[in-house]
């Protein structure tokens, strides 16, 4: 058995009053001795801070930090990374509900010298079609198509590894893709693995508003990734957005393609073929919102492209 491992769990928050209590309650009862919980808030204007403080006031291993200015989830995570006192970082979104033995499951991998560990994230709230759609897509991507993946809900890495790659890319505005960039950088220079025996349950968007917001973020994140991380020229980003939009619209208009997609998705839903009609609606909704997100991001990239200040677009 290797050395004892200590964990710093980092949770960025911004208006998370609907989820954060469940997440922190699960962290409070983790079956492990050496860990701390660091919540980094981006100046929430709902009850998030009040809820977090109800934990920090009675639990000495819980702490609350703030962004001076809300520059997004990457900056919040980086504040937590810098403040972390322990060997290994577990970086959570505010809707992840870790099982009590989660840190014990991670421990052997870090004792063996791994620098990062990706796990299997699974949707908990499968009572709504929105959540089942998301879970079916994720399952197919990871276990049917066997797509390459690094970042997951419940992701962890050593603090040393996080610092070695410069932490999360703060120049990407907001959130959407920054976690994948971080995972890719870690993989290039640090030893890690995908632990298929560890599950990180999380709450997926389960209504129209939350599903819509999540897809907008995904659409924006794609464009931001090309401009802020890949350093594509503005012209290149415009051309890419136009071509991608044309392809998406052609897929939507083809009818047969969306139907084939949702038939496949329904095979991995607990309701099976009964989900085909609602999944078809969600496919079209998702594609339309992704398009909107891409074009919104393009307008923000245009504003950034013609500025000289090296600061994130708010």
Question: Which secondary structure elements does this structure contain, and how are they paired or packed?
Answer:
Blueprint: E1 7-13, H1 20-28, E2 35-41, H2 48-56, E3 62-66, H3 73-83, E4 88-91, H4 102-111, E5 116-123, H5 129-144, E6 155-158, H6 159-164, H7 178-189, E7 192-202, H8 208-229, H9 234-254, H10 256-267, H11 276-305
Parallel strand pairs: 1-2, 1-4, 2-3, 5-7
Antiparallel strand pairs: 4-6, 5-6
Helix pairs in contact: 8-11, 9-11, 10-11
Key attributes of the depicted protein:
alpha/beta; 11 helices; 50% helix
What does this structure look like?
Strand 1, helix 1 (20-28) and strand 2 form a beta-alpha-beta unit. The protein has a seven-stranded mixed sheet, with helices on both faces. The chain has helices spanning 20-28, 48-56, 73-83, 102-111, 129-144, 159-164, 178-189, 208-229, 234-254, 256-267, 276-305, and strands spanning 7-13, 35-41, 62-66, 88-91, 116-123, 155-158, 192-202. The chain is of the alpha/beta class and 314 residues long. The longest helix has 30 residues, at 276-305. Helix 8 (208-229) packs parallel to helix 11 and helix 9 runs antiparallel to helix 11 (276-305). It has eleven helices and seven strands.
């Amino acid at each position: 058995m290797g050395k004892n491992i200590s964990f710093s769990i980092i949770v960025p928050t911004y208006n998370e009053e609907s989820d954060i209590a469940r997440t922190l309650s699960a962290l409070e009862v983790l079956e492990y001795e050496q860990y701390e919980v660091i919540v980094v808030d981006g100046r929430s204007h709902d009850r998030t801070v009040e809820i977090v403080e109800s934990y920090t006031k009675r639990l000495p291993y819980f702490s609350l930090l703030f962004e001076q200015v809300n520059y997004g989830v990457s900056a919040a995570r980086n504040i937590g990374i810098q403040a972390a006192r322990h060997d290994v970082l577990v970086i959570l979104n505010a809707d992840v509900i870790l099982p009590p033995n989660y840190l014990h499951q991670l421990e052997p991998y870090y004792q063996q010298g791994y620098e990062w560990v990706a796990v299997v994230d699974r949707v908990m709230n499968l009572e709504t079609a929105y959540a089942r759609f998301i879970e079916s897509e994720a399952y197919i991507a990871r276990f049917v198509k066997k797509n390459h993946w690094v970042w997951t809900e419940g992701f962890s890495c050593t603090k040393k590894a996080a610092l070695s790659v410069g932490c999360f890319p703060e120049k990407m505005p907001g959130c959407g893709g920054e976690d994948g960039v971080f995972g890719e950088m870690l993989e290039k220079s640090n030893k890690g693995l995908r632990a298929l025996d560890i599950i990180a349950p999380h709450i997926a968007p389960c209504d129209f508003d939350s599903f819509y917001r999540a897809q907008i973020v995904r659409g924006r994140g794609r464009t931001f990734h090309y401009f802020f991380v890949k350093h594509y020229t503005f012209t290149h980003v415009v051309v890419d957005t136009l071509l991608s939009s044309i392809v998406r619209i052609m897929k939507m208009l083809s009818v047969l393609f969306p139907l084939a997609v949702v038939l496949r998705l329904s095979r991995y839903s607990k309701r099976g073929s009964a989900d085909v009609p609602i999944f078809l609606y969600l496919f079209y909704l998702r594609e339309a919102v992704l398009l909107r997100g891409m074009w919104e991001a393009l307008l923000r990239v245009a504003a950034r492209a013609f500025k000289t200040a090296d600061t994130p677009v708010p």
